[in-house]
Amino acid sequence: MLFRRRQPISRLTKLRELFWPRRGFIRSFQYLSKRVLRLSATPHAIAAGVIAGVVSSWTPFIGLHFLIAFAIAYVIAGNMVAAAIGTAFGNPLTFPFIWASTWEVGHRLLGNGDPVSRSVDLEHKFSFARLDSMWQPILKPMLVGALPLALISGVVIYAVIYIAVSKFQARRRDRLAERARSRLAQALQ
Length: 189
Fold this sequence. Notes:
Layout (H helix, E strand, L loop, with lengths): L10 H9 L4 H14 L5 H15 L7 H11 L4 H7 L8 H16 L11 H7 L2 H58 L1
C-alpha cells in the first residue's frame, strides 16, 4: 500500500485517538481558526457566519445544527462555510456544559427554581420520543436558556472574529501590494 503505516497501530491506540487525538485538540482549533481567517468574504459575512453556527450550537436540536446555522447565516448575510465551521463550537466536549447551562438558565428564567420539581425521567420521556412529552420538561427550558447565552456569546464572538478577520485581510492586502510593487520594480530594471 502506498500510504500504509510501517508499524500498524493497535486497536487500543485507535480507540484512544478516537477520543483524544495524538496531537491534541489545539491543532484542530488552530486549523479551524486559520480556515476561518482565510475565507474570501467580507469580515461581516465571516463573523456573521461563525456566530450563526455558534448560536445554533446552543439549541438542543442536535441533528439540525447545520440547517439552523445555514438559515441564520442566510438571514443575517453570513458566510455558509463560516456557519458550518461555527457549529464546531458544539462538540462532544462542550455539549455537557452547553446543556447544563441552558437547562439551568432556562429554569431560572421560567421561575422553576425548586430542584425537586425539576427532576425529569429522561428514559421515560425519550422512550416515547414524542415532541409534546419532551417540550415542557426538557426542550422549553433549554430553548429559553439558550437565548441569552447565545446572544451574549454571539456578540462577543462576532466582535473578536470581525476584528481578527479585518486585520488579517488588511495584512494580506499589504503583503500582496508589496509583492506586486517589488515585481514591478524588478520588471522595470
